[in-house]
Protein: Dirigent protein
Organism: Vitis vinifera
Amino acid sequence: MMLPRIIFCTAVSLAVLTVVLLALFSPVAHRKPSKHHTRPWLALSLYIQQPLIPTHHRRPVLQSDSGAFIFHRTLTKGPENTSMVVGQAQGFILPVKHFEHSAFNIIYLTFDTPEYSGSLSVQAKHLSHKDRQELAVVGGTGSFAFARGLAAFAEAA
């Protein structure tokens, strides 16, 4: 009856000791930041293309209080629909009053090019109807792993 308690206490003690030793002897924890070493900065200019849908297939636009906006768009290098496709923009936004500042309103930008492969997650928490939006980049995968920063969305002239 006492053996399971001894095993449990030993396991917990070893786990705590491991965490403490890793914190004390980790080279990352003791590294001094260099003046010249900064996180990599990446500035991309991309265009989200509207889908080309014939007028007889168009659905009515949802009102802001009627439900969710679900979209799937193409990302291109240039403003023209014929520009090189670099990825996809997908999102799910709840414009309902109680959810408009929700952490669930995310736009996913996925890339599949020779330079970049992965995705960026952009939080659409503070959407307004301005000409320019600055939204928070809250994560990424692949080439953009653990990305943080700002994503600026502006309407092309």
User: Anything to note?
Assistant: The first helix runs from residue 3 to 25.
